[in-house]
Design a protein that fits this description.
This protein is an alpha+beta fold. The protein is built from one helix and three strands, in the order E-E-E-H. A three-stranded antiparallel sheet has the order 1-2-3, with no helix packed on it. Strand 2 and strand 3 form a beta hairpin.
């Protein structure tokens, strides 16, 4: 797993209860790794400095608490991306 956050992507707080929800001027930093029982691939934790709370990379997504491994998440993401690509208008 890469140790650098993609600099082209703006990170924002995904927690709807946070006052800094979707605000890109809020500072989000990496805050450690954790492993799940079903997968030994480390998962990333993040820290929202504005709201002073931690969240995992899947916490506020449909993948949260789904007991899959990282390969299954990756496959679901690719399938979703392919579906969305097929729905885009052709120019």
């Amino acid at each position: 797993m890469s140790q650098s956050i993609n600099p082209k992507l703006s990170l924002f707080c995904p927690c709807q209860e946070c006052n800094f929800y979707k605000k890109i001027d809020n500072k989000i930093t990496k805050d450690g790794l954790y492993k799940t029982q079903n997968d030994k691939t480390p998962r990333q934790m993040f820290f929202c400095h504005g709201g002073q709370h931690r969240f995992s990379e899947t916490r506020y997504s449909d993948l949260y608490n789904q007991q899959g491994n990282f390969k299954e998440y990756e496959m679901a993401s690719k399938m979703g991306r392919a579906y969305l690509r097929s729905k885009l208008p052709m120019f």
